[in-house]
Write a structure and sequence with these properties.
The chain is of the alpha+beta class and about 110 residues long. It is about 20% helix and about 50% strand.
Length: about 110
């Protein structure tokens, strides 16, 4: 599974990369956060099956996240996610995180 998330997460392959680069920093900064999905779409593009969804993470911002200082208050981190499927499994994820919006909340 290939994860492409842009800076500061960047790009990598496998569960270890996703955990270290994405899941662990999010869990430390926003412990117990909720994932709220606002929109879900699915269809074919370029001969592949894709799913797209957007929403936000909501949690108490208690530790720095990729250089953004914590506020000790509720914070929203908006995201867009695009997943390409191959043989019934997710082969690639493109993740857009709205860190600028998180910075404005700090």
């Amino acid at each position: 599974h290939l994860l492409r998330a842009g800076a500061p997460v960047d790009e990598g392959v496998g569960a270890d990369f996703a955990a270290t680069a994405l899941a662990e920093p999010l869990a430390a900064a926003l412990p117990g956060h909720e994932v709220r999905v606002d929109l879900t779409l699915a269809g074919e593009f370029g001969g592949a099956a894709w799913r797209a969804w957007s929403g936000h993470l909501l949690g108490l911002f208690v530790r720095p996240l990729w250089g953004v200082p914590p506020t000790g208050r509720l914070a929203w981190l908006r995201f867009g996610c695009f997943e390409r499927e191959e043989e019934g499994r997710i082969a690639e994820t493109l993740l857009l995180l709205d860190l600028t919006s998180l910075m404005r909340q700090s």
